[in-house]
Amino acid sequence: MTGRNSRLLPFLLFAALALPGLAPAAALHAELTDATGQPLADAVITLRGPLDAPEAPPPARMDQRDKQFRPHVLAVRTGTLVSFPNSDDIRHHVYSFSPAKRFELRLYQGTPSEPVLFDQPGLVVLGCNIHDWMLGYIYVTDDPWFAVSDEQGRAAIAGLPAGRYVVTLWHPGNPQLLPQAAGELQVQTQTLSQRFTLASSGPVEPPAPPAPSAFGEAFRKAVEDAAQ
Known about the structure:
The structure is a single chain. This protein is mainly beta. It has helices at about 5-20, 215-225; strands at about 25-35, 45-50, 60, 65, 70, 75, 80-85, 90-100, 100-110, 115-120, 120-130, 135-140, 145-150, 155-160, 165-170, 180-185, 190-195. Helices cover about 15% and strands about 45% of the residues. The chain starts with a helix and ends with a helix. The strands form 5 sheets. It has a 5-stranded mixed sheet, with no helix packed on it.
């Protein structure tokens, strides 16, 4: 090694440790279950760690397909713009009365021109003023790292700098829909696998739409026509 390279070596080592973009990042593979050990879909896990998120949150979307909100649970970071496309061939009327975000998107098809800014942390419960069974959740968090579990209760979070993290869990089956503290997690520079148990009544399926009837379809059409 030349003298010049030997003088650069301490600087490069310092940069690798001091700059998050250069330091090795880890990943968390979480398994989320209820008290009986059954996997929980649509469970949210969030991590608050030694560093803030490196960039502004990307936009997100909450679709409407087959008269259901898709996904059933969406997790976003505070300050995220969320669009609400309507992929059905009928109109929907989306609203929320939740303190974290009160808004209303009157009867529409396609995609509204302006997304909705979710600028306060908390739980936002979504409904449709035309289809009462439609129910969705947007979990807004200040924590920079988060994920929602799949049908097998699995959730993965990548790009974690080494350090200690505070873990929070949430699920639609939680008592009073409140988040649950889940202790702390020490993350090194390798993939970490861990199981978390939530205080939940078990898997929560989106309410199914009622069977179609001639009266119901006529009433729905009358409501839509009156709102035009």
